[in-house]
């Protein structure tokens, strides 16, 4: 695939594939220098007929993804929107400590929302982004009008998933070309079902280094590669369980502190089980819980339905 004019030149093609007839929004890459010198990056989408409109919906993606995972959902949404690259993903800086957990990521996200929006947002987060969105809503209630958490609850590992995905990212740390990454994605049964979609996904989630080699943008691929290449050591199961317990409790504390209306949207084939959903309902009794016909990446599997649902919520 030849490089596009810019990262937003795919939008008309994506709209046509999804059968979306509305005008394609204008896309803009944003960058914010954080207090410690790292960079937070995001995408702002503005309807063609409202060029000055500020975002009303902000999106946070899951681990190993980037802001472009929301493209088709935002096309279906039809409203001014902001999609943030979480630290360690997309065009945002990697963290030296590799600590990608909700309460650590939340202050960076809040700084971006503060800088790039002018009113409380419908804040939507999937997987790791969902836990981060809850932490943002708890710590900065002035930024959040309503919270939507997609297919994650505290206690679940937002970096977990099919062994296929972990094996995919645990391959070589760099590649000769993006075509090699596309072939690897297709060989693993990934990429969205067509070569064209796989090419777009690889383009958005990779970069060409100064030496001409291609690497994944997100830090998780580097971490997975390092882990797969390292010596085999016994897993500290008790320690891991303790850490998971602590992180899980902090997530429940964040959700309990959220003042905004909250919805858990779970895929019927996703990561959140019936028991997880029941625990969510018990711990956050004021929240709504809805099930949709999707797997974990709801924004990619049913973007039209998700966009329509969020448009209705944003209009309230």
From TrEMBL:
Keywords: Hydrolase. InterPro entries: AB_hydrolase_1, AB_hydrolase_fold, Carboxylesterase_BioH. It comes from the Bacteria. The keyword Hydrolase applies. Its EC number is 3.1.1.85. It holds the Pfam family Abhydrolase_6. This is Pimeloyl-[acyl-carrier protein] methyl ester esterase. Residues 59-303 form the AB hydrolase-1 domain. Coiled coil: none annotated. It is an enzyme of class 3 (hydrolase). The keyword Membrane does not apply. GO terms for molecular function: pimelyl-[acyl-carrier protein] methyl ester esterase activity.
């Amino acid at each position: 695939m030849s490089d596009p004019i810019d990262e937003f030149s795919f939008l008309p093609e994506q709209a046509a594939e999804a059968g979306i007839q509305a005008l394609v929004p204008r896309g803009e890459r944003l960058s914010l220098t954080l207090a410690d010198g790292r960079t937070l990056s995001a995408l702002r989408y503005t309807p063609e007929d409202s060029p000055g409109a500020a975002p009303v919906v902000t999106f946070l993606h899951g681990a190993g993804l980037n802001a472009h995972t929301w493209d088709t959902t935002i096309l279906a949404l039809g409203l001014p929107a902001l999609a943030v690259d979480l630290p360690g993903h997309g065009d945002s800086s990697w963290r030296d400590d590799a600590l990608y957990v909700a309460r650590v990521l939340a202050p960076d996200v809040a700084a971006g929302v503060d800088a790039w929006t002018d009113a409380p947002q419908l804040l939507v987060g999937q997987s790791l982004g969902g836990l981060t969105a809850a932490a943002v809503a708890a710590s900065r209630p002035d930024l959040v009008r309503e919270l939507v958490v997609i297919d994650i609850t505290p206690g679940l590992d937002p970096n977990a998933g099919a062994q296929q995905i972990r094996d995919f990212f645990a391959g070589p740390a760099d590649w000769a070309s993006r075509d090699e990454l596309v072939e690897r994605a297709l060989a693993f049964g990934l990429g969205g079902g067509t070569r064209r979609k796989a090419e777009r996904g690889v383009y958005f989630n990779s970069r060409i280094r100064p030496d001409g080699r291609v690497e994944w943008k997100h830090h998780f691929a580097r971490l997975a590669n390092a882990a797969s290449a390292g010596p085999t050591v016994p897993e500290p199961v008790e320690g891991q369980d303790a850490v998971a317990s602590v992180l899980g409790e902090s997530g429940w504390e964040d959700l309990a502190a959220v003042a905004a209306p909250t919805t858990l949207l779970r895929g019927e084939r996703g990561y959140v089980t019936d028991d997880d959903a029941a625990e969510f309902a018990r711990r956050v009794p004021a929240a709504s819980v809805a099930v949709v016909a999707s797997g974990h990446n709801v924004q990619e599997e049913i973007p039209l339905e998700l966009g329509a649902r969020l448009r209705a919520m944003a209009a309230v």
